[in-house]
Amino acid sequence: MYREFFQLHDKPFELTSDSRTLFFSEVHRQGLATLKQGVDASAGFLLLTGDVGTGKTTLINALVAGLQDSPYLCLLSNPILKVSEFYRYVAAKFGLSYDGDKSHFLVTLSRFLDQCLATGKKALLIIDEVQALPYDLFEEICLLEDLSAERENILSIFLVGQLELLEWLAEERLRPVRERIGSRFHLEPLSGADVRAYIDHRLMVAGRGKNTEALFTDKAIESIYEVTGSVPRLINILCDNAMLTAYSRDIKRIDDDIIQECVEQMSLGGDENAPEPIPKRSFWEKWLWPLVAVVAVLEILAVWLSVRFGLIEYIISLFR
Which of 91, 122, 135, 219 is the S-S candidate for 256 at Cβ 3.0 to 4.6 Å? Predict the structure, then answer.
């Protein structure tokens, strides 16, 4: 809608990304180098953590794409599986057979890893959102790591998750897992300078020339950085809304006023003047007086019935 207005051939802030829009900050480059070194060194478990939307999946995809020999890859994005479902999924991704028998599968997987070791071809098992993983399934993953450790860690297992994963791994029962982590990296949010570079990169890929005036003012960039917490996903949403607002008003440059207006509409910054929520009442606070009223009505009805039927019995006795 606004592409021609801003002289672009694509929408710059689509939520779905491709290789052209891939942006790597210095933090991302450090993370990529650390994880690649872990794969090359056959480090066993590799740990990648970061807040929601910081680019963990982007980093993993770039790592896989950058490996010299295309590895066998199993990417598990939804870890809420039963053990049998997990083994069936891994088997399908690695091109192995699975008849529902765990022992048979482990033998098949062992032979597969032996073949990988003989040919020098890596196998990657990447598990996203590990903090949601059932503990019994995590034990099975440790079993796979045991098989890999016997074969020079030819199977690299990536544990990818949010900040809660660090707390989970700190539990005493998971101490053996912590000791097996050969490489780890925590993905920090973008810096203020990175946010400017990220926005400029997206606009340039979408067709905006390098020598044209910056579409977003410096103050607008500062507000975007503060409000979004430098999370790329939120940056995309806010910038897209700001460009749409500017287009609707025939404004060629986006300033802080437009950003603040979009922030209010999107409720990203909160509303200090918003009324406080009505506190929830307990069961007795909610139903005490209605129950008292019901009991009172029942008592009145009981008195009325006793009087009524007592009077009827008296009248009947007069005719006996």
Answer: 219
